[in-house]
Amino acid sequence: MKILFVERDVEYIDPMNIQLLSALAKVRGHATFLTILSQDDLQDDLKRIQPDMVAFSAKTGEHVTYYRSNELVKRSSPNIFTIMGGPHPTFFPGLILTQDFDAVAIGECDDAWQQLLDALDAGRPIDSIPNILTKTNASTMLRLASKTSDHEAAGTLSPSDPPEYAFEVDPAFLRPRKTYLDDLPFYDRELVYRKTHLGRFPLRSFMSSRGCPFQCTYCFEPKFNTIYAGKGPIYNRYSVKRLCLELQELKERWPTQFIKFYDDMFILDRRVNPWLEEFVETYPREVGLPFFILTRANVLTRENLSALKSAGLHSLTMSIEAGNEYVRSKIVKRHMTMQQITDAYDLCYDQKVFTFANTILGIPLKQELMEAQGKTAFDYDIESLDLNIRCRVGYAEFPVLHPYPGCELAEYAVNNGFFDGDFDKLFYSYQAESPFVCFSAKEVLMQKNLSLLGPLCVQFRQQWLRDLVVKVLVKLPLTKLYFFPWYLAKAYLNVFRLYPLKLPLWSVLVDFGYSIRREWRKRAPNKSLYRNRQRLDRPTTRTLGGPLPDPGT
Q1: Which end of the chain is more exposed for a tag (fewer CB within 10 A), N or C?
Q2: Are 289 and 368 contained in the same domain?
Q3: Domain tally for the chain?
Q4: What CATH number is given to the structural domain containing 97?
Q5: How far does CA 329 lie from the centroid of its chain?
């Protein structure tokens, strides 16, 4: 079969989801293609490639773009099999009832994807494949999202039927989590690299593990863990040997200077466990590149930080998310104290490990709570700014909160009337302005301005600058003007401090033009993103090396 993956845009992080799916498909003899909506003409690609399948992977916010793309595919040829996977259909499986997809993929689908391809290739029915939801099996596999376990027949929709977000999938329909990752093929990076800037950009992304056991309410992982309760361990990881084999080949095939480990949690606990001991001994010898990780302040210790630094750790992120103790512990449930946060950042500062922190602005609170604490909504954002300055964060980002399905924080926002529950209104980027109805126009303006000026306050750590921003600049309607110093600071910190890269001048200039347009669009939902342009459409020819699943299984 010919399989066309459709991606909204490609920035500077590998789209590892489609790279893995492409590799799994090529193992089974299928040809894979890629259309990037921000640079390609989907309709033209459909005519020239004539795919048998078109596959989308969607996060909430970008899902509407893929709905429209799917409509175009079906108008082009109703016989093309279309499927959507990713977080959005996992939490909104009812979209199979309202959208013209032939199937949606729920949860982890490494094995389901291969089983689906085999069935389609052989002309067999697909309705009994776990994790693959169709219009036919939806009547038994979907139920109304409620405390009852009674199944509700989906059937044919009428105007009085529940909307897509009212359904959840029966957990019995999901196969267990994949606990052994080493038999997965290497990412098919060629699919993306040969037609995008990532082929020459020497920052490479990799995930050494899957899963996170923590309960942060803005994240989908707790809901994902609930869906998969009793279906295997929450956290699963590649062996160190398998990890290093893939990174070795990556270095050989593509110019690579820095590895970004994109695991939700690279350090899972405070112990220097056997996996970490093997990693810090093997990685420098077999790979030998500086790297970045994600972790938490309450699991970082002098011992595990020193071990990782000896292996090549250059930078890490520990999200702060909220400066206010109540908001951090009760609303976003980070479950860490102010002392743990400051101690961890002080440790990194002393060890000269560069730090990055996400901190969320615009977390809505009940009016009576704010009155009891004697604060305005913006006072909580200022507390978050001040904690970042105190922690001497190397590079701080201040995104505005967006409620995503499957997250407890979204339920909190809907239940308290802060958000109407219409997730179709969300923009694909959480850097756009707040979608909450509880903030005034002035508060929304101040949030947007602080998200741009806050990183500068943290970078320079000057009291006069902090006071000027908080007392004056955030109140002025100069958001577009503030974008430019913010972007220059972000570009510098990313390329020279967080992920230090040696780039030729021509590459810096090209990447500057490429990235500034995308950053502008993230903050401007009304700006057109898509342009028609003919690009490469021939299939990729090989999968990267490494252990491959048996095609006969």
Answers
A1: C
A2: yes
A3: 2
A4: 3.40.50.2300
A5: 23
Most confident by average pLDDT, 38-42, 350-354, 504-508, 539-543: 350-354
**Which pLDDT score, from 0 to 100, does residue 513 have?**
86
Closest CA to 449 of 425, 413, 485: 485
Q: Domain residues for 135?
A: 2-173
Residue 388 to residue 407: CA distance in whole angstroms: 25
* CATH code of the domain covering residue 293: 3.80.30.20
Whole-angstrom Cα distance, residue 158 to residue 145? 19
Q: Residue 14: which of 250, 211, 238 has the closest Cα?
A: 250
- Output the DSSP codes for 22-91: HHHHHHTT-EEEEEETTTS-HHHHHHHH--SEEEEE--TTTHHHHHHHHHHHHHH-TTSEEEEESHHHHH
Whether residue 181 is contained in a domain is answered as no
* Same structural domain, 257 and 213: yes
Distances (CA, A) of 175 to 105, 110, 124, 229, 232: 12, 11, 20, 11, 10
pTM score: 0.90
pLDDT digits (tens, 9 = 90+) for 294-348: 999 999 999 999 999 999 999 999 999 999 999 999 999 999 999 999 999 999 9
Residue 220 and residue 168 share a domain: no
* HEC readout, 183-235: CCCCCCCHHHHCCCHHHCCCEEEECCEECCCCCCCCCCHHHHHHHCCCCCCCC
One domain for residues 516 and 454: yes
